[in-house]
Amino acid sequence: MTDSIVTLSHIQKSFGSKKVLKDLNFTIAPGNIVGYIGPNGAGKSTTVKMMLGLLEPDDGTLELFGQPISPKDPSYKRRIGYVPESADVFDALTAREYLSLIGQLYGLSAADAEQKALALAELVNLRDAFDRRISSYSKGMRQLILIIASLLHNPDILFWDQPLNGLDANTVLVIEEVLQDLRDQGKTIFYSSHILDVVQKLSDRIIVLNAGTVVADGPFKAIAKEADTNLQQLFNDLTGFAEHGQKAQSFVDIVTEGESHEDA
Ligand SMILES: Nc1ncnc2c1ncn2[C@@H]1O[C@H](COP(=O)(O)OP(=O)(O)OP(=O)(O)O)[C@@H](O)[C@H]1O
Questions:
Q1: pLDDT tens digits, residue range 89-115?
Q2: Angle at Cα 127 formed by Cα 121 and Cα 129, nearest 5°?
Q3: pTM score, two decimals?
Q4: Of all protein residues, whose CA lies closest to atom 24 belonging to ligand 1?
Q5: How many CB atoms lie within 10 A of CB 106?
Q6: Residue whose CA is closest, atom 29 of ligand 1?
Q7: Is the pLDDT score of 125 beyond 80?
Q8: Residues enclosing ligand 1, CB less than 6 A?
Q9: Where are the alpha helices (DSSP H) in the chain?
């Protein structure tokens, strides 16, 4: 009998000659908000896709709900809510059509799916756009559709890959509270984000991925080595990044090279 809802042991994954995940190990207990952070290209989406059974590890084992993921028995997917990193939804459909379709794929009746989707859409100010094609939606509106789609079937665990992309500050506050309320009801939330002040505030536990392995794992207060630091500073330290000023200066020098405003 295991206490963990997710177990990753010695996971390795390469794409061609590029070793992305070298030896990834962690378990997640139910009823937690876990923030998964790391530099661009660190392997966060790759990890999430493996947890969903969309990608296979080259080595190591991955268990969900105490069982190894098996393509022969995809029933575990009904207990998962996934927000992919890229908001590519079916543009030709309206939100009503898309969410009804997704709800039905997860076993809801068309009427229940539509009713639930509409009620959720109203709460995030999407009612007026509900019968418009998604092709006319802004980035943030698309993101909200993905978030609603991941919740329609009341999953036990959320795998959200950069869910806050494109959301305005007010909507982020709503989503933060939604996640906290879901956690308080015993749901598990595993999400990646680059918005580190939100990650610091929201997460019960933060896992930092760098160069293919976990370099910090725990509640923010436990992984922060100094009392007056913040997650941004800790992230810079953990990923060995100290030259932002110099990089920015070189970038601007190249952009503005040879330019003289006196000529304008
Ligand atoms: N299908 C693929 N084929 C080849 N390389 C891939 C593939 N998927 C991912 N990669 C590579 O694996 C590495 C990790 O990618 P991944 O998308 O997991 O990073 P990430 O941590 O989610 O990054 P970001 O913060 O930029 O979204 C990158 O170098 C990426 O180019």
A1: 788 999 999 999 999 999 999 999 999
A2: 110
A3: 0.92
A4: 40
A5: 17
A6: 41
A7: yes
A8: 15, 18, 20, 38, 40-46, 85
A9: 44-51, 95-105, 110-123, 139-151, 169-184, 196-202, 220-223, 231-238, 244-256
Dihedral sign from CA coordinates of 49, 55, 58, 63: positive
Structure tokens at 28: 């997640």
Q: Which residue's CA is minimally distant from atom 27 of ligand 1?
A: 40
Q: In one letter, which amino acid is 63?
A: E
Domains annotated for the chain, with CATH where assigned, are 6-255 (3.40.50.300)
Instruction: Compute the Cα dihedral for 50, 56, 59, 64 and give only its sign.
Output: positive
Query: Cβ neighbours of residue 54 under 8 Å, at least 6 residues apart?
Result: none
How much distance in Å is there from the Cα of 190 to the middle of ligand 1? 18
Which residue's CA is minimally distant from atom 9 of ligand 1?
46
pLDDT at 177 over 60: yes
Candidate of 17, 45, 194 to mutate for ligand 1, largest count of ligand atoms within 8 Å of Cβ = 45
Task: Flag whether pLDDT at 1 surpasses 50.
Answer: no
134 HSE (CA, 13 A, CB side): 21
